[in-house]
Amino acid sequence: MTPPRNIILVGFMASGKTSVGRALAERTGWTLVDADDVIVARADKPIHRIFAEDGEPAFRELERQVIADLCAGERQVIASGGGAFVSEQNRGVMLSGGMVFFLSTSPAVILRRVQEEDAGGPIRPLLAVDDPEARIAELLSQRMPAYAQAHHTVETNALTAEGVAEHITSICGIVISC
Length: 178
Hints:
By secondary structure, this protein is of the alpha/beta class. It is built from 8 helices and 5 strands.
């Protein structure tokens, strides 16, 4: 089997895209690129400020540009933003730019991870509501038709990042880097 040009990780926020991406980069010797980090660097401000100051449409346009640029490369593990794959244009670019893996995670696990990751930090813009777990479930439901179009789905609730990375490399037929 020929390895894909890129491995692209999609899924809801806190589904493990960055952690799994790090584990995959370590296993494969490929470069990890976090799309959100590239967006922050290009905007020269954090994502919550892009949303607050410029609005979600401006964020999504910058995200579209970043996704197109990243998917043009190769031998990368690309950790996308949680909503990037929802855009039909981004989805097409990603599906043709490598092998796309949807990291499926339950709302309860997502909420726990977000609370652990963001302890003391700003509330993520999409979860600044009274019932964040219900909001996660609602957004997951809306995004599921898009996520279902990924080449593969990996359930992450009971797996470590290393376990998910091992599963993905076996699907891709990638020889582990020494």
